[in-house]
Write a structure and sequence with these properties.
Layout lengths: L1 H13 L11 E5 L2 E4 H13 L6 H23 L6 H26 L4 H15 L2 E10 L2 H12 L4 H8 L11 E5 L6 H8 L11 E3 L2 E12 L5 H27 L4
Antiparallel strand pairs: 1-2, 3-4, 3-6, 5-6
């Protein structure tokens, strides 16, 4: 059980243990000091939540760990370690962290994402993705005049890929001849996606397309049917994302309402 003991120490030092059921009796006494049974209950709850089976061996290991910790704690107090300013600060931060975790968990428990929320987010995602995926290339430049000149060069016979490598300011696609790979329209800014979806396979925009990045020359290389992932397969991820968003919005609202000087 040495490995288990080390794990327990790490969890306790980091404050990762969760609150467990309270009990009136004690698990042991060390030099006359009682160790509450609640300590053992809390540690047991943490370990069983992680998949450890509730066994006598585990309970004995928890008891021994608590005894060792109490022995060390008493030795530390005898030397006055607990009175040191740095230690007092760490104790206060650890206490704060425990309260914060409990508060955030309470918020999550009382502000659950509903199945309807998850389904709506899934439907919105499908609408954004559409039913077609595009393999597209582009050339990005800083001004419209240059973009028009490059379109004229390509229409006159210059290869799109060569022009992209020589002139594009997009470092992510420049060396690949402007290739952006396969993406759905929802992955791009509206002006870009609108121009892209208006083109057929092999077609290039006749006029430059402006976005907040600059001026684009867009060519659709290919298209294919896009099948959205099945709802049941991604529902857990969607729910987790929505729950995180809800929590972050709550924290942001508290921050905005706080008077910070």
């Amino acid at each position: 059980m040495k490995l288990f003991r080390k794990t327990l120490i790490a969890l306790l030092v980091s404050g990762a243990a969760t609150t467990g059921a309270m009990a009136a009796d004690t698990v042991a006494k060390v030099n006359g000091k009682a160790i509450p049974q609640a300590y053992a209950d809390t540690m047991m709850a943490e370990q069983t939540a992680k998949g450890a089976p509730d066994s006598q061996e585990l309970r004995d290991a928890v008891r021994e760990e608590l005894v060792r910790r109490e022995i060390l704690f008493q030795a530390a107090k005898k030397k006055g370690i607990d009175k040191q300013a740095e230690v007092q600060t760490q104790i206060e931060l650890a206490r704060q962290a425990v309260v914060l975790r409990a508060y955030l968990q309470d918020f999550v428990n009382t502000n659950q994402v509903t199945d309807a929320d998850v389904k709506k987010a899934y439907d919105d995602m499908k609408a954004r993705l559409g039913d077609t995926e595009y393999k597209v290339s582009h050339i990005l430049v800083e001004d419209e005049a240059k973009a028009k000149a490059l379109i004229a060069k390509i229409e006159a016979g210059d290869k799109f890929e060569d022009v992209a490598k020589a002139e594009s300011t997009d470092p992510g696609s420049k060396e690949r001849g402007g290739d952006l790979g396969w993406s759905s329209p929802g992955m791009y800014v509206p002006a870009f996606s609108e121009a892209m979806t208006s083109l057929k396979k092999g077609e290039m925009t006749k006029t430059p397309v402006q976005s907040n990045f600059g001026w684009h020359i867009i060519r659709v290389e290919d298209t294919r049917k896009l099948d959205a992932p099945e709802f049941d397969k991604i529902a857990p991820q969607i729910k987790q994302r929505l729950q995180s968003q809800k929590l972050e919005e709550h924290i942001t609202a508290l921050r905005q309402a706080a008077k910070v000087e």
